[in-house]
Write a structure and sequence with these properties.
Blueprint: E1 7-10, H1 14-27, E2 30-36, H2 43-47, E3 50-55, H3 66-75, E4 80-82, H4 92-100, E5 104-105, H5 110-117, H6 119-128, H7 144-154, E6 158-162, E7 172-174, H8 180-195, E8 200-204, E9 210-218, E10 224-236, E11 239-245, H9 252-268, E12 273-281, E13 287-293, H10 300-307, H11 311-319, E14 336-343, E15 355-356, E16 359-361, E17 368-372, E18 379-380, E19 387-395, H12 398-411, E20 413-415, H13 421-428, H14 431-435
Parallel strand pairs: 1-2, 1-4, 2-3, 4-5
Antiparallel strand pairs: 6-7, 6-8, 9-10, 9-12, 10-11, 11-14, 12-13, 14-19, 15-18, 16-20, 17-19
Helix pairs in contact: 4-5, 12-13
């Protein structure tokens, strides 16, 4: 067994920072929390062994301030940095700086992040492996006339997508050639503004697909396993709000096919640590590679609940150079898990709702888990993502998990800010969702 880290710095905030600190405590590892001036009294700063302010409230001055984070690691003698998700988690330059400074980045190599972070390069690599992708432009496109010709050849409707980034920015659905030009330039401008890179490509639009992702885990000795799938089809504006595992529509044959495709991709790029390979699944149950997330996912708890594997602790073990501790045949999926992202936002318009939480009641009972960093009198800042808590349930069957989630949502009370709890309650009572008949356009009915 490789020696464990003595001290890890968590380059993040909120619930994921708390989640990582707890995993470190169980492994006997000391922790360093970093915080912005807006987060001075947050839970992650209280739970960590040390806490250092890295700048003002704005993300660019704190949680995206690479020099401040590296300095904090150096002055506290932290041997490793866990980036969590968001912020610098998929920043290849940050991972490379950590490597050059002799600080272990708990994640894949900077080369893997860089390769899979560019969707054009990633799709080319996946095509080479003979994993299915939707018909696409086969390269980035700069000229509008060429783009229209390619879109006609692919066949409308098509989607214009940014080569880097995510969250729906730089993404435009185009139904006809007449509307193509304006949307082409809008997508390029959005991508440039959001990601500093205006490269775009065109892809055939998949009608009413499900969003299925495969959790993989890889060590530096070439061992790769997959931990089943998550169904992330319940989205608004390309942002996930509810995830479940396993998917209601995958059988063992399809699960194995998608899992083995994800493993093939990870092996081909010499990937290490944990990651997620994302697919679109069409109405005929054909799957197509979409992208790879080179980090821990927000929705990792549902996989933990059905496998019994603590993914954060495995991340840390893999980063020390340990081998994966189990083989594919040892991984068994047990029961069903659902996660609802509880956000501080208007449930109808999705407009963020910062402010002070004046009253708080969290649910409990068998099979109920809360990942959160909030408390009564906590002030939700306007500077960051609106996620307040992840409400996760597990049941022996999907029907039991649905009942457990509905009950937990009824018990959960957050006052002082608006939340999307009412929307989640509507979803739990929707006959199509209960029957598992969903796709990525499901939430349009609640618009």
């Amino acid at each position: 067994m490789k020696p464990m880290f003595h001290k890890i710095l968590i380059a993040n905030r909120g619930e994921i920072a708390v989640r990582i600190i707890r995993a470190c405590k169980e492994l006997g590892i000391r922790t360093v929390a970093v915080y912005s001036e807006a987060d001075k009294d947050n839970l992650h700063t209280k739970l960590a062994d040390e806490a250092i302010c890295i700048g003002p409230a704005k993300s660019k001055d704190s949680y995206l301030n690479v020099s401040s984070i590296i300095s904090a690691a150096e002055v506290t003698d932290a041997e490793a940095i866990h980036p969590g998700y968001g912020f610098l988690a998929e920043n290849a330059e940050f991972a490379e700086i950590c490597e050059n400074c002799g600080i272990k980045f708990i994640g894949p190599s900077s080369n893997s992040i860089r390769l899979m972070g560019n969707k054009i390069q990633a799709k080319k690599e996946v095509e080479r492996l003979r994993v299915s992708v939707l018909p696409w432009s086969s390269a980035g496109i700069k000229d509008e006339k060429d783009a229209v010709d390619i879109a006609r050849r692919i066949g409308f409707p098509v989607i214009i997508k940014a080569a880097v980034g995510g969250g729906g920015r730089g993404m435009k659905l185009v139904h006809t050639p007449a509307s193509f030009g304006n949307l082409f330039h809008t997508a390029k401008n959005e991508a440039q503004a959001a990601f500093g890179n205006g490269d775009i490509f065109i892809e055939k639009y998949c009608e009413a697909p499900r969003h299925i992702e495969i959790q993989i885990m890889a060590d530096k000795y070439g061992n790769v396993v997959y931990l089943g799938e998550r169904d992330c089809s319940i989205q608004r504006r390309h942002q996930k709000i509810l995830e479940e595992a396993p998917s209601p529509v995958l059988d063992e044959r399809l699960r194995r096919g998608m899992g083995e495709a994800a493993v093939k991709i990870a092996r081909a790029i010499a990937y290490t640590n944990v990651g997620t390979v994302e697919f679109l699944l069409d109405k005929n149950l054909r799957y197509y590679f979409m992208e790879m997330n080179t980090r821990i996912q927000v929705e990792h708890p549902v996989t933990e609940m059905i496998t019994g594997i603590d993914i954060i602790k495995e991340q840390i073990r893999l980063a020390t150079g340990e081998r994966i501790r189990f083989k594919q045949k040892h991984i068994r999926l047990k029961g069903h898990s659902i996660e609802c992202r509880i956000n501080a936002e208007d449930p109808d318009t999705f407009v963020p709702s910062p402010g002070k939480i004046t009253s708080l009641q969290m649910p409990g009972g068998p099979g109920v888990r809360i990942d959160s960093a909030i408390s009564c009198n906590y002030t939700v800042p306007p500077h960051y993502d609106s996620l307040l808590a992840k409400l996760i349930v597990h049941g022996d069957t999907r029907a039991e998990a649905l009942k457990r989630m509905a009950m937990a949502l009824d018990e959960m009370e957050i006052e002082g800010v608006k939340t999307n709890i009412p929307l989640h309650k509507k979803i739990m009572n929707d006959s199509d969702f209960i029957a598992g008949r969903v796709d990525i356009n499901f939430l349009n009915r609640f618009a």
